[in-house]
Automatic annotation (TrEMBL):
Cofactor(s) the protein requires to work: Zn(2+)
Organism field: Rheinheimera nanhaiensis E407-8
InterPro entries: AstE_AspA_cat, Peptidase_M14
UniProt entry tagged with the keyword Cell cycle: no
Domain called Peptidase M14: residue spans: 29-303
Phylogenetic classification of the source organism: Bacteria, Pseudomonadati, Pseudomonadota, Gammaproteobacteria, Chromatiales
Family recorded in the similarity comment: Belongs to the peptidase M14 family.
PROSITE patterns assigned to the protein according to its UniProt record, in alphabetical order: PEPTIDASE_M14
Keyword Zinc part of the UniProt annotation: yes
List of catalytic residues: E275
Protein name per UniProt: Deacylase/carboxypeptidase superfamily protein
UniProt entry keywords in alphabetical sequence: Carboxypeptidase, Hydrolase, Metal-binding, Protease, Zinc
Amino acid sequence: MDKIYHIGTVGQAWGAAETAQWLSEQTVKRSFFAEVLPAIEALTTDFTLEQYGELDYRHVSGKTYPLFAVKSRNWQSDKPTVLVTGGVHGYETSGVHGALRFLQTQAKAYSAKLNILVLPCISPWGYETINRWTPDAVDPNRSFATDGKAAEAQLVRQYLASLNTSFALHIDLHETTDSDNSEFRPAKAARDGTVNKNWNIPDGFYTVDDSEHPCPALQKAIIDSVAKVTHIAEADENGELIGEKIAQFGVINYAKASLGLCGSVTDAPLVSTTEVYPDSPSATPEQCIQAQVAAVVGALDYLLANN
């Protein structure tokens, strides 16, 4: 069905007034400073924390959000380097808490053989407002190209460039939620002056490979690992997930660099974007977090076995 959004005029892209109206409707619903930052700070016993920037949103929420990277301590140039990103879309809860859970439970063991770098919450304002966009109504996960408009994405790009290192693998933790159809896709169509057609929300976990540089064996390793924790999404009657033809069971492909996706932010030959479905009647919030951890573990085990 077509979904008409309550802000803007059909067929006309938003201007400043519509963006301001949208922003005025966003409210803080949970706390980055209570739920996420203490968990990051507690990792200092076993990891190195680096603040790679901050988001000064005092004009929006009265807050300035620090942005942290968590690095394994025994960093060595001869070891493969792995990047895990969470919370590019702040509303995708298990992406943030899955990255943190991986650090809390698994990352130290892997750091003997790998350099581990985790950015657990790239969009903290989005986390607090349970939102996909920045306060300027920009999608961070379309902003990782050099001309991207989201500070959240550009600060990540600048930080990674400053490390002057090559990455062997990057796994970016996401969710596909029912609110994609009820809120975010209609809002995007209204913002852009286009017509929205809702897609089928897959019930279960899936991954997004890079159609420009596919690594199907990695995706299968991730799917096999996650299947031990929660169910994998079945294709719809058209053989698709979110409107894309499946490349293999539980996997679709996107052109990540062309779309400015976070998955294109490094030179890693192995890349995957995870998609957890938190609204499934068959999955709990804890299972969603465990699915993200299983995805990372499956990816790292694949890297180690094939390095």
